[in-house]
Design brief:
Number of helices: 12
Distance between the termini: 75 Å
Shape: elongated
Structural class: mainly alpha
Helix content: 55-70%
Number of strands: 4
Radius of gyration: 30 Å
């Protein structure tokens, strides 16, 4: 008896449906296909939002690299900051409410506890200094010194890294380079490395603060918990400092940096739009968009090159100029 008698009709139907779907996917998109244009419009809108976010975050990174000595305030590494039990800050005074209108009384200076650094009891870590402390004081002292050492070390490294991008000096000081190369490198590579620096700096600070408490913490697991917690906290604060701190402190300056580099962000958005066109539209339409995009880029390069040599008549074009604003 032939084996065809045992073949399932359902299987044949499923196979035919799969073949039909594959044929539909292989069919070229028509230029007037409304579904394709709708998908393209959605992609362009999403890429526009992503470009706006990228522009704000990368401009904030440029703002950080241009702070100079202000980084000592943003990322403090001085010993006094980590040893003072209190620090001075400005607080908002009480408001008086009259007819549902609040009138502030102004701000005033006040001293607040410098937690957790106010838990540090002794500056040194010699056995003689630690022997006079109770178990609670010794544990609190170890905790405060571990946190202080971890943050001080990582802030020092981060400040050194930001100082590697001096504004307007060479390739690293160029804002276009910082936006397209340095910023994504910082987020991905340095952000990943901050996990390691956070953990090992916490571990090193713990052992230097009090070896005995650290050893017992290794057996009782609280030392490991603190090291891993500081590792996550260092990475989270690192990313928050890059992405959100500039906007929270000087959003007008960040917006001005973004406006000065608007051409760079338009180029990035255009690249995304071309990619969306190749994914959703007819090949001929996508090809025309790609050609127009390349022509506009070339025209912009030519125009900026002419302006550059007009503004610098003594330049022969053979120097070591790293101003890549010439190209974008």
């Amino acid at each position: 008896m032939s084996s065809n008698l045992f073949e399932s009709d359902i299987k044949d139907d499923i196979d035919s449906e799969v073949i039909d779907e594959e044929d539909d996917d292989d069919e070229p998109k028509e230029w007037d296909d409304s579904t394709s244009w709708t998908s393209f419009a959605k992609s362009v809108f999403i890429y526009f939002i992503l470009t706006i976010f990228y522009a704000f975050f990368s401009s904030g990174f440029v703002w950080l690299t241009s702070r100079g000595s202000d980084l000592d305030y943003i990322l403090p590494t001085n010993e006094e900051f980590y040893t003072a039990p209190t620090y001075e800050t400005m607080k908002q005074g009480p408001s008086s409410e009259i007819n549902c209108n609040e009138t502030p009384s102004g701000s005033y200076a006040a001293f607040v506890d410098n937690f957790p650094y106010n838990m540090i009891v002794t500056k040194g870590s010699s056995p003689e200094e630690l022997a006079g402390l109770s178990k609670t004081e010794r544990l609190m002292n170890w905790y405060g010194k571990t946190v202080a050492g971890c943050f001080k070390t990582n802030r020092g490294w981060f400040k050194w890294y930001l100082d590697c991008f001096p504004p307007g000096e060479g390739l690293f000081g160029n804002q276009t380079f910082q936006i397209f190369i340095a910023f994504p490198f910082t987020i991905v590579v340095i952000g990943f490395l901050s996990l390691g620096t956070g953990f090992w700096s916490a571990f090193g600070s713990a052992t230097s603060a009090d070896m005995k408490v650290t050893v017992w913490g290794g057996f009782l697991l609280y030392a490991w918990g603190l090291c891993f917690a500081l590792m996550g906290l260092v990475t989270a604060r690192f990313l928050a400092t890059i992405c959100f701190y500039p906007m929270s402190q000087a959003w007008k300056d960040v917006a001005n940096i973004m406006a000065c580099n608007i051409t760079s962000f338009v180029v990035l958005f255009g690249f995304f739009c071309c990619g969306a066109a190749y994914d959703t539209l007819d090949e001929s339409i996508a090809g025309i968009m790609g050609i127009v995009y390349i022509v506009l880029i070339c025209w912009n390069i030519y125009k900026n090159a002419i302006n550059y040599f007009v503004d610098n008549p003594g330049s022969t074009g053979t120097g070591r100029s790293t101003n890549i604003d010439l190209f974008i």
